Amino acid sequence: MLKKLLLGAIALSFTNCLVLNPLGATIDREKGSVAAGRITDAAIQTDLVNSTLLAGRPAISLITLLASDIAKIESDKYYVKADVDQCIDDITGFKGFVLGSLITNIISCQDLKTDGYITGDPFPSF
Length: 126
Known about the structure:
Blueprint: H1 2-23, E1 29-31, H2 32-55, H3 67-70, E2 78-80, H4 81-92, H5 94-99, H6 101-108
Antiparallel strand pairs: 1-2
Helix pairs in contact: 2-4, 4-6
Keywords: Lipoprotein, Signal
Signal peptide: 1-19
InterPro entries: Lepto_Lipo_YY_C
């Protein structure tokens, strides 16, 4: 009986990862299209504040609109939400206002890892 329960728990855990992670149904995952929108919004916000403070009028650059492409976000993949949140916090935080959204994006958002079926992209490497 204990053996059946243990095997059932392992099977349920494995199917949970295989089904819920790609669907983005787990709590700490975020779809790439959502992450890309949040990163672009953060870059636009930072550019608007910086340009208003420095030039006296709000403006954004065309490069700001490509923030998700600079961060190499793929819309069909899933990312760890804490990593995306840290990237956005860096862009909208002190680092973003001092260095600008482009440089902060290059520094802080290049290492966002995709979240695959179990732990890798899409399978773990052995």
